[in-house]
Amino acid sequence: MAERDFLDEMIAKRTARNAEFPALLDAASRRRELLHALAAQREDQERSQTAVAAAMATSQSSIARLETTASDAKMSTIDRYAASLGFVVQYHLVPAAGGRDEPAVVVH
Fold it and tell me: What is the phi/psi pair of residue 105, to 5°?
């Protein structure tokens, strides 16, 4: 078994204080994954952060933060970012406990 590192210890301490912490961490990870995917799409389209920012009526620094450090970006901001790249974000409602085999509800 691998040794526990600092991250393991931090997660254990936070979970001891708040039993919901692992779920919050998982949600943040999914948001970060979505934002990284959108940043990759922007790069694939060879569009600069400045060009996307102009399309969204915001600043380049806001796009940089969104792509790198936005831990809790608003859904409306993510939707606007995706739209500026020609995408629509779909939302899937997946049962949280024990029902992962049940079909997801897709919201278009």
Answer: -100, 120
**11-64 per-position pLDDT tens digit:** 999 999 999 999 888 888 888 899 999 999 999 999 999 999 999 999 999 999
CATH of the domain at 74: 1.10.260.40
pTM of the model: 0.78
- In 1-108, at which residue ranges do the beta strands (DSSP E only) sit? 91-93, 105-107
Q: Check: CB of residue 22 under 8 Å from CB of residue 11.
A: yes
- Residue 39, amino acid: A
Token pair, residue 91, equals: 């939302």
Identify the domain containing residue 35 by its residue range: 6-107
